[in-house]
Structure formats: C-alpha cells, structure tokens
Fold:
Amino acid sequence: MDSTVKRVAVVATGVIGASWAAYFLARGLDVEATDPAEGAEQRLREAVARHWPALEQQGLAPGASMARLRFHARLEDAVAQADFVQENGPERVDFKADLMRRIDAAAPPHAIVASSSSGLSVSAMQAQCARPERVVLGHPFNPPHMIPLVEVGGGGKTSPEAVAAAMAFYTAIGKRPIHVRREILGHIANRLQAALWREAFHLVNEGVASVADIDTAIAQGPGLRWALMGPFMNLHLSGGDGGMAHLLAHLGGPIEGWWDDLGAPHMTPELQRRVVEGVDQALGGRTQAELAQARDALLIGLLRAKSASPGLDTPT
Structure:
C-alpha cells in the first residue's frame, strides 16, 4: 500500500463511484463519500454491501471494513482531509470543470484529484482550478471493484509528478494502470471498444449476423484469447516461429483490405430498434442482475487464474 494515501474521497456515488468506494474500502482505506442526489447514501451503502462478497473472494487487505465509509452531504466536507480524490460526476465538460474547481478549492494541497471520465479532456476539466497541476485522469473499467485496468493521464497543466503519483497509488492498491501519453477523445480502451462496436453494429445493420451470433463470435472466439493477452501479443503468436514480422509479411495486405471494407454505420432509430430487439431475444428471459452475477462469478475465477499465470502478462 502507498503509505502516503490513507483517506480517499469519492465524489459522486453512482454505478462507478459506488464500485470505486467498495474497492477502496476493500484495500483498507478510509473513504469519504458525497453525492447530492436524494437517497444517495442508502444506495451507496447497499451497493458496497452487494459488492463486498466478490471483494472478499478476491482477498481483502488488512484493516478492510465497510465501517470505514463515511457519507457527507457537502462536497467540501468529503474532500477536506483526503489524500486522493476520485471524481465520478456526469460526463459533461461544463459540469466537470465546475466540479473540479470546487474539489480543488477544498481538498488539501497535497491531494491528487483524479477523474473517472470516460472520454473528456483533462485540460478542459482542470481549466478552472487554482492547482490544475494535480488534476489527472483516473479512468477505470466497469466494474472498478473487479476490473484491474485504470487509464491515467494528464492535461496541458498537469505535472508529471501528479501522473506518477496517481500511477503509483493505483498500482499500490492492486490496479493495472496504463499511461495515456497524449490527450485523445475516449482515451485508449474505449477507442478500442468503439472500433469493435462500430463493426458489430454495421454487421447487424447489413443483415450479416444477429446480435446473438456477434456476441458468440467474440465471447467464444477472439475474446477468449483477448482475456489472456492483448491484440499485439496474440498476433505475434499467430505468426508462428517468425512471430509478428512473419505475420505482417504474409497478412499485412489482407488485414489492410479488411480495414478498408469496415463499415461506418449511423445510429439511426431503426438500427437502435434492431439491436435492442436482438439483445432482448439473446437474453432469453434472464434479468440484468442474473447476467451480471454470472459474469462476476466467472470473472473472479479468471482474475485468479491470470494472477497465477504471470508468464502471459506484459512486463511492467
């Protein structure tokens, strides 16, 4: 554990914020939470209790306790003693900029202020801050209490020291941070997802495959390999003894041809209707909660297996 961070403030406690709060508590930290929505505290405590069994299965840090969660009506009270702030407000740049201004004005000078923003510019979010150098991106992957990835980056006024401190903190609590070296819409992982989503929607729109078949194509095909290694290492193995160089020499041209033929669908009402109906059919009566429970149970086993097989992991 990074000894400099003992207390984390979680600002906004919706789906992402509540998941972060549960994870921070599981790592033995004190959590000060705030959210202006009516009934937010009760929903947060219920979410933390719901996530706790999965966190117990992953292994709790010494001192981990749900009792170390405190809720504040005022944002300023929540961040006043924080060593690290995790912001999770609505994905609107005007809202985020004002929220960051308020956090920056109330948080101790040493505290790092991280945003869970899925795609906004840190430069825009830090624009109204008196100490913009400490504002960083800290974008998790949903659900944060289970998925290790965190994307960390800075804006035009962020100091390298703040980025390094955020990377060190996330690493210390068991996350796998990656450095977004240049601001770009959607960061890294969401852009990679968006590329796949675009073609998936295109294939449905063109009548090539059903929603269920596309999900099967990924979940029972490349998705199994992607859960173990990323796209470049998988391509390297596909090249046999010659590795990546051999693969690109023989398939580089065809791959480029596939790129040229990829679709660029528009999110028309008709396409949305077809996808929603396809998802409903694929669910086969299963509820959202049942699907998430089954996913999380399998995910815990996968994370344990990956931890026990570090030979496939990218060195850090």
Notes: The first helix runs from residue 15 to 26. The first strand starts at residue 7 and ends at 11.
